[in-house]
Amino acid sequence: MHIVHSINDLRHTLQGAACRAFVPTMGNLHEGHLKLMRMARTAADQRATASPQNAGKAMTVASIFVNRLQFAPHEDFDSYPRTFERDCEQLKANGCDVVFAPTEKDLYPEPQVFKVHPPAELADILEGAFRPGFFVGVSTVVHKLFNVVQPDIAMFGKKDYQQLMVIRRMVQQMALPIEIIGGETERANDGLALSSRNGYLSVEERAEAVQLSLALKTMIAKVKEGLTSSKLNIAAIEEHAMQTLRERGWQPDYMTVRKQHDLSPVSKITTDPLVVLGAARLGKTRLIDNLEII
Ligand code: PAF
């Protein structure tokens, strides 16, 4: 496995690759990332072997870069866990050919004044409402990473549901020739969605953290009940979930039912596929999760 830091070295290393599959990360990897890495390996190999002249020329790339642009000044940029050596070992064991780990100077040699601004109706809601500028930072770095890696396929976890949607729309609107694949959320045995930020939780908070996904499951049960009985009160379902978490000591930002295709609110009975999404602070740690209603 190659480990490269500069854009030039990366381009040089990837020369001749017939198919490139890419997993962007901020490091501190967990099973969710590693599963995306294995998916990238399989997808790249399948694509390359589909055309015999390309067999063996598939390359998988993971980036490790904690992107300052997507952190607000009061957020955890400085304390975000950096576990580079362990990450590299895990990537190697899971089919990664190249780790791209630029420094800030490598990726942003001068202030990044050209930025990608996703549309407000997608990026200023939910996460974007509570983390202003977050999706500008994410879209800008992902667009830049796409330019330097030039992947055919890129993998993103569904745990960051809105992020996946923003990236899909960016790729579609900018006509980037990249297939975006969403990986299912990986969960601990008790149901807590895996996240790099789970490491911030104390033992007591870790035991409590599963309540976020349990609250989402309760919301799903109530939505299904409402759809069947034609008595759907979304506002009451959302408020009940918020209140349940508050009573347990959480500070919820949102617990909401949305349409899967554009994350718009649900105002009446619908046959559109739905998703429940939540974000809440437990102590000092902000957790997010979502579940599609199927
Ligand atoms: O999901 C993440 O880890 C980050 O938002 C990403 C996509 C690597 C961009 O910095």
Structure description:
The protein is an alpha/beta fold and 294 residues long. The protein is 40% helix and 19% strand. The protein contains 11 helices and 9 strands. Strands 1-4-3-2-5-6 form a 6-stranded parallel beta sheet, sandwiched between helices. A 3-stranded antiparallel beta sheet has the order 7-8-9. The chain is globular and about 60 Å long. The model has no long low-confidence stretch (mean pLDDT 97). Bound molecules: pantoate. Pantoate binds next to strand 2 and helix 7.
Biggest β-sheet description? 6 strands, parallel
Secondary structure category? alpha/beta
Determine the mean pLDDT.
97
> Which ranges are low-confidence, i.e. pLDDT below 50, for 5 or more consecutive residues?
none
How would you concisely characterize the structure shown here?
The protein contains eleven helices and nine strands.
Task: Please name the defining characteristics of this protein.
binds pantoate; six-stranded parallel beta sheet; alpha/beta; 40% helix; 294 residues
